[in-house]
Amino acid sequence: MFADRAKIYIRAGKGGDGHVSFRRELFVPNGGPDGGNGGKGGDVIFEVDEGLNTLTDFRHKRKYCAVDGQQGGKKKCHGADGQDIIIKVPAGTVIKDEKTGKVITDMSNGNNSEIILKGGKGGLGNMNFATPTMQAPKYAQPGQPSKELEVTLELKVIADVGLVGFPNVGKSTLLSRVTNAKPKIANYHFTTLNPNLGVVDLTEGKGFVIADIPGLIEGASQGIGLGHEFLRHIERTKVIIHMVDAASTEGRDPIEDIYTINQELSNYNEQIAMRPQVIAANKIDVIYSEDEDPVQKLRDEFEPKGIKVFAISAVSGKGLKELLFYVNELLEGLDPEPIIFEKEFFEEEIRLADEPYTIEIDEDGIYVVEGPKIDKMLGYTNLESEKGFAFFQRFLKDNGILDELEKAGIEEGDTVRMYGLEFDYYK
């Protein structure tokens, strides 16, 4: 089964914590602070791999984490930076935030490598906080927390022309005849389970890329019969060729088929249904009706609407040249820029993968704030110094703890307790 959609969890590395230490050497009784800085956390990077054409690998591994930065050391030693993680995807992969559905990036049109999550910065060691009035700071800066996301990967094939139609109308046969593609061909529903790409070469260097989109059925836009798996591949195409069985060898009405597919395209994405269309009336070599011409009926129905109809035989090749040159003319009249999915999701929307904390009100009305996040911060902060207390206040504000206290109903003068620390709350 062709895999064109996957959901994975990605996490950048946390910044290493700054270190608290003091120089201790013989004959240097009052050595100054020498705690080093923490290393930067690793980034999460997506890269295009031209050798890939599916997202199958992501069915087996769904969690990708970069390495955390190392903590700073004594003697002003800098912690090692965390190693980046590089995730390989096929060209045409659109990365979206799983929660909102917003586009983070489109790995196509030369966008071969992009940092999706940046690792946290390393914290400063206590050597950075020494001043003439504070020569022995006993606190260091924690590293920045890591960032995490659940993302959806969607592969949308990169083609100028999308070839659509019901199963068994001859799309794969057409593709194999006009391009160098070698799709498997057989006579049963959903013959093609993955989009086939081929390059149509015309005279004087002209040509285009065409995608045989697997056969659609009524209800495809609601996901019936793998509909969603197929329809997303039409989103980049600029021109749509509707292929129908003009001979009605399976008893279907070709006019009704076109209206049905157009309705499915519109239900899925109205913009797709508005793109230029051409009708390829296939299997004219097996039309035996003497009463009426089914191709003319198609022309009478659709050419007044601006949709040109070509009578073709994918088996014998009749009519294919006229069809392909007309499609090429349509493309030449359109914007040559490829269809790219614009970025909708920005870095400031990325949530932090941070340690939790809780806010509760005890029986004495004291607001108790606890959790690994708070415990860790207090371990690095010297609240007896003015600078250390200022750092503590910034920490409460920057991490949203003050906002959460206000949501819990705290008022000026109320008491806050964090493990062994108690203080009165004032804005």
UniProtKB/TrEMBL annotation:
Q: Which UniProt keywords apply?
A: Cytoplasm, GTP-binding, Hydrolase, Magnesium, Metal-binding, Nucleotide-binding
GO biological-process terms attached to the record: ribosome biogenesis
Where is this protein chiefly located? cytoplasm
What's a Gene Ontology MF term here? GTPase activity
Chain residues that bind Mg(2+) = S172, T192
Q: Where does GTP bind?
A: 165-172, 190-194, 212-215, 282-285, 313-315
| Oligomeric form and interacting partners | Monomer.
What is this protein's function? An essential GTPase which binds GTP, GDP and possibly (p)ppGpp with moderate affinity, with high nucleotide exchange rates and a fairly low GTP hydrolysis rate. Plays a role in control of the cell cycle, stress response, ribosome biogenesis and in those bacteria that undergo differentiation, in morphogenesis control.
This chain belongs to which protein, by name? GTPase Obg
Q: What gene codes for this chain?
A: obg
